[in-house]
Amino acid sequence: MIYDNHNRPITYVRLAVTDRCNLRCFYCMPEEGIKYLPKHQVLTYEEMERLVRVLAQLGVQKVRITGGEPFVRAGLMDFLHRLAEIDGLNDISLTTNGVLTAPHVGALAALGVKSVNLSLDTLDRERFRQITRRDELPAVLKTLDALLAAGIHTKINAVVMDGQNTQDLVPLTDMTRTMPVDVRFIEEMPFNGEGSHYPVLHWTHRRIVEEIQSHFPDLQKLPDPPFSTSANYQVPGHQGTIGVIAAFSRTFCGTCNRIRMTAQGTLKTCLYDNGVLDVRALLRGGASDDELTVAFLKAFSHRPANGFEAEQQRDTVTESMSTIGG
């Protein structure tokens, strides 16, 4: 196992396989979209497989596939099969918006994918269309049904946005009554291609919990697993759980065990940094596995203590979450 300069283990990589997406979510990118990377600037699956193998040798045990939307890239399932053969990697997970996912759920289950994070910010079709700028809620709900039927651990990711979907806190929480899902409410972050939508973040993690408690007064705090980014709760008698992620307040940085690799091969040791290592240049420049290892270890030894320190070391945040990989 490897540790950063703050004695935090690094065991988890979030790997973006594309920056492209079939939705245009309010909190992720402008309505007109973003300028996508040319194909030759995106890592090939072979390059991604190699860097995951190197990271696995260093102690990374979990990889989460992200985007953009992973299923807009052809050949994803073949790539997942190759990842499943990497020694030391014992957890392959996926984050998806669910629009294209339903036909692949059986194959994901057969592959041993342990969990899927499904982005779902509202259960109201018109609000879904307004938030995502696409009318795709039925397709997402079809994926949710398929995931539950396949027995795949499903987490619902809902970004809480002032004036957009705060009225959905109660119906989304109520999903846990009859469904074995983890509904996670996430503070909105400025990674939308435009910068922060608000001078002040009104819907903080504390306010989210208070709003849920006002409707579910017996809400109980649960123990948080090691390295959890969410504070976890449950309404007694409900099958599922609630999580609240202080993504903007950044209360969980002290136990962060994850790194990110963007689709163009930029290593981010913190969500809020500007990228700390051009892995694509190393891969295409002929670097050996040993040289990649040295470069990774050097990057891990200069990791910021938290997201605030990382943000202070860069210009204003304006990129899209689609380019970061979540």
TrEMBL record:
Assembly information from the UniProt record? Monomer and homodimer.
For the ligand ([4Fe-4S] cluster 2), the binding residues are C253, C256, C270
Gene3D superfamilies noted in UniProt:
Aldolase class I
Which HAMAP family does the entry link to? Answer: MoaA_B (MF_01225_B)
- GO molecular function terms here? 4 iron, 4 sulfur cluster binding; cyclic pyranopterin monophosphate synthase activity; GTP 3',8'-cyclase activity; GTP binding; metal ion binding; S-adenosyl-L-methionine binding
Residues annotated as binding [4Fe-4S] cluster 1? C21, C25, C28
The text of the family note is: Belongs to the radical SAM superfamily. MoaA family.
Name the UniProt key words of this record, in alphabetical order. Answer: 4Fe-4S, GTP-binding, Iron, Iron-sulfur, Lyase, Metal-binding, Molybdenum cofactor biosynthesis, Nucleotide-binding, S-adenosyl-L-methionine
Q: Which NCBIfam families match?
A: moaA
Name used for this protein in its record: GTP 3',8-cyclase
Q: Which residues bind GTP?
A: R14, R64, T95, K155, R258, I259, R260
Q: Which reaction does it catalyse?
A: GTP + AH2 + S-adenosyl-L-methionine = (8S)-3',8-cyclo-7,8-dihydroguanosine 5'-triphosphate + 5'-deoxyadenosine + L-methionine + A + H(+)
As recorded in UniProt, its EC number(s) are: 4.1.99.22
Q: GO terms for biological process?
A: Mo-molybdopterin cofactor biosynthetic process
Ribonucleoprotein as UniProt keyword: no
The residue ranges of the Radical SAM core domain are 5-218
Q: Which PROSITE patterns match?
A: MOAA_NIFB_PQQE, RADICAL_SAM
| Keyword Lyase part of the UniProt annotation | yes
Cofactor: binding comment = Binds 2 [4Fe-4S] clusters. Binds 1 [4Fe-4S] cluster coordinated with 3 cysteines and an exchangeable S-adenosyl-L-methionine and 1 [4Fe-4S] cluster coordinated with 3 cysteines and the GTP-derived substrate.
Annotated residues that bind S-adenosyl-L-methionine are located at: Y27, G68, S119, M189
- Primary role: Catalyzes the cyclization of GTP to (8S)-3',8-cyclo-7,8-dihydroguanosine 5'-triphosphate.
What pathway does this protein act in? Cofactor biosynthesis; molybdopterin biosynthesis
- Cofactor list: [4Fe-4S] cluster
GN (gene name): moaA
